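Example 3.
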Amino acid sequence: MKNSYALITGASSGIGLEIARNFAKKGYNLVLTARRKDLLENIASDISAENNIHVDIISKDLSLKNSTNEIFEFCESKNYQIEILVNNAGYGIKTSFDKTSVEDEEKFVRVLGTSVIMLTKLFIPKMIENGFGKIMIVSSVAAFAAPSAIQPLYGPIKTFMNRFSDSINVNYKHKGISSTALCPGFTITGFHTASGVQDEMDRVPRFLVFSAKRIADEAVEATLAGKSLCVPTFTYKFLVFTLQYLPRGIINALGKLLAPGRYDKQ
Ligand SMILES: NC(=O)c1ccc[n+]([C@@H]2O[C@H](COP(=O)([O-])OP(=O)(O)OC[C@H]3O[C@@H](n4cnc5c(N)ncnc54)[C@H](OP(=O)(O)O)[C@@H]3O)[C@@H](O)[C@H]2O)c1
């Protein structure tokens, strides 16, 4: 059994759960975190039994300011050496921007942005000391695409995360640390139901929709290989490449055609 641990946020479902399964198969011990404790407990006992690895859990709400410190202190107290940090937790806000509270937006930015920065900040010193560390930041094709049908802040925060991931590479690659920005397209997970957009997801053409396992498998390989960007599947590689050269007006029209948003109904 390896002595190294992978810490995965948002491991109770979807892409995070599949990433956990993949690392477990490779023999990594795991620390899994999310809010739903019962779910995490069941997942942990299944994964550890199947793979003969140690799996621990810590249930935390990343929209709360202290959660990242508490996760770090938990790992320190147990002497877990976090070699791989997967910042995956995320969701979309159900309500349209003009109707949310400031607190709704603050929580959103904390889960998808601030907590990613804080966890990276907390765990990177040990990685530097060890001369080795792999970070994965689960971003999205939305970082490159037309303004999001999920809600106005979603695309911008993912773009920010891509840039943050790039910064980590620029500053720490020579110290043995790499950061991989994972940019999936539409993926079958609990995300769209949790974000109130399952109907819109059901209208997305099938050739644009992939399984969470497919995304996770490509993501883990890219992270272990130290790639700075991972856009899983040829379909989305082609789309993201094209998005970088098309005029904005065409991108917006394509976005409406392929992934009409819920605000169209209002
Ligand atoms: N599905 C897609 O089409 C798609 C496409 C591109 C990018 N992504 C990104 O992929 C990542 C994973 O999402 P998914 O698609 O796998 O969705 P999912 O199945 O809904 O998983 C989201 C995970 O995040 C956790 N989470 C949500 N809010 C949290 C909070 N406040 N505190 C702690 N954990 C929280 C959830 O756990 P609990 O509810 O138990 O807390 C769950 O484990 C997200 O960053 C998302 O933006 C998804």
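The longest helix spans residues 102-130. The pocket of NAP is lined by residues 10-16, 34-36, 61-63, 88-91, 111, 138, 140, 184, 186-187, 189-191, 194 (CB under 6 Å).
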